Amino acid sequence: MRLVDAGCLLMALAAAGCAASSGPPRVIAIDDIRVGPSRQAIFIGDYDRALVSIAAVTENELGLPKLKASLHFFPNRGALQAALETQGAPPDLARDTAAVMMAIGGPGSVFVNEAAFADLNWNSRIAVLAHELAHTMQYDFSNGRRGTSDQWLREGFAEWVQAHVLDALGVMRRDDIRTRSVRWVRDRHARRSLPPIADLATFPDWVSFHNGRARDSLYPYAFVATDFLIQRHSVEAVTTYFRLFADSDDRFANFARAFGEEWDVFDAALRDYVNRLIGT
């Protein structure tokens, strides 16, 4: 989720169907869509086709479970803010969240600020939706629980899914996305500002660094780290990791069970990998 993935906000939005001042949001549920997927983004010009096309990639090419999600469209930032406040979010948090978020992926749903999306072309909309739909999968894996799964891996996996969707739909080659992400990590600014990945475990950690010097590099950094993890193990191991949080919030034990290695071992390997990328 870019930027906010706070559990309280997601649960507030999940019940926000009649909270916005402009009435219930428009909803597109994947199970109600009757159009078929497109294999090229150039043929995607509506949300129905975008949703089923992303689902076709995640299911058929990545082997992920059937996507079970809906898109909820709030007309503008004020409607989204009103929904958050009505459901109990503090006014300042609701205002700040609505100000920076154009979409929020939670349990079974992606909530969209439709006015913000209006400024995006369809390639950009597909990219944002692919990222947010990946977050809905993470909740599905763990039976709707956010748990204590590492924030960097939640964001990195969403970026990884997004990269595959954009590649499959002819928007941008996955290898080019990887190269660009590595370039961000290698950049001099990133080398001065990027924290150890272990410091990005919680949502407050992520927000703290996002609001600092690492702002432009966190998502590429998370993508590089997740791509390394998947190459080292498998995408199935990542989905297993998220599934374990349905029953346990022991993040270190869940990591060891899913990937067959202790966190400290992976952390050291990732540090070496990043150091090689940036030439130190």
Structure overview:
With 280 residues, the protein is an alpha+beta fold. Helices cover 58% and strands 6% of the residues. A 4-stranded mixed sheet has the order 1-2-4-3. The N terminus is likely disordered.
Topology:
Blueprint: H1 7-14, E1 26-29, H2 47-61, E2 70-74, H3 77-86, H4 91-100, E3 103-106, E4 109-113, H5 114-117, H6 122-141, H7 151-168, H8 174-186, H9 188-193, H10 203-210, H11 218-232, H12 235-244, H13 251-259, H14 263-278
Parallel strand pairs: 2-4
Antiparallel strand pairs: 1-2, 3-4
Helix pairs in contact: 2-7, 3-4, 6-7, 6-12, 7-11, 8-11, 12-13
Return residue spans where pLDDT drops below 50 for at least 5 consecutive residues: 3-22
Q: Biggest sheet, open or closed, and with what strands and sense?
A: 4 strands, mixed
Count of DSSP helices? 14
* Percentage of β-strand residues: 5-15%
- Helix and strand sequence: HEHEHHEEHHHHHHHHHH
- What is the spatial order of strands in the main beta sheet? 1-2-4-3
> Terminal Cα separation, in Å?
31 Å
Mean pLDDT over the residues: 86
Q: Helix- and strand-based class?
A: alpha+beta
**Secondary structure: number of strands:** 4
**C-alpha Rg (nearest Å):** 18 Å
Shape, principal axes of CA atoms = globular
> Percent of residues in helical segments?
55-70%
Integer count of domains: 2
